[in-house]
């Protein structure tokens, strides 16, 4: 079983839709959670960073963490064609120790927002 | 956030040859990382490169195949040695930016490698 599971999609939605992207994880040591956006032929770009359970909002993006369920989500409101990309969740354990700095990624979800 | 560049951006190589990929950062960083992203797959960490010490490799990756240099706090190289078609992948470097409000990682644009 992978440490981080993410549905690869592909996911296709109309412009203006609310998009929900999700990841589950099995390692309770993960404490920091990130979402990256990767456009075709580009490196991953950090979108959201959260620590601990709860919600974090940044413009049209909301990241949600539920540590009790080992489940994280990224919501995109009023989706735009420019949001079409691969979205990768990533996690990192608590600072310190041999796992420090090691990001574990989900497989990535391919999102297409069509006009 | 740190600005990261990689060279080359892409290359096509013959089986059995080696390619060295460069990663340059616009500020001094302690930790640099090298990842591989195979076609249709997510990112897999190859090794962690800290200045002044040997790189630390993840399970499944060895120094003879992926030698890494980290001569200073703004630069690192990854060499893919004795290449085979299975090494065709995107290779990405990332840095941990302690100057930002988070201790997360920022990525370079990647090097797209095709081995024939």
Low-pLDDT sequence parts of chain A? none
| Mean pLDDT rating of chain A | 90
Question: Percent helix among the residues of chain B?
Answer: under 10%
Overall structural class of chain B, as computed from helix and strand content, comes to: mainly beta
Give the overall shape of chain A, derived from the CA principal axes. Answer: globular
Please outline the major beta sheet of chain B: 7 strands, mixed
First CA to last CA of chain B: what distance? 36 Å
What assembly state would you assign to the polypeptide chains in this entry?
Answer: heterodimer
Succession of helices and strands of chain B: EEEEEEEEEEE
Task: Give the biggest sheet of chain A.
Answer: 6 strands, mixed
Please, how many helices of chain B?
0
Largest interface (C-beta under 8 Å): A-B, 21 and 24 residues
Q: Helical proportion of chain A?
A: under 10%
Briefly, what is this?
The complex is a heterodimer of chains A (115) and B (116). Chain A is mainly β and 115 residues long.
Description:
The complex is a heterodimer of chains A (115) and B (116). With 115 residues, chain A is mainly beta. Chain A is built from no helices and eleven strands. In chain B, the strands form two sheets. In chain B, strands 2, 4, 5, 6, 9, 10 and 11 form a seven-stranded mixed sheet that branches. Chain B is globular and about 35 Å long. Chains A and B meet through β4 and β5 of A and β5, β9 and β10 of B.
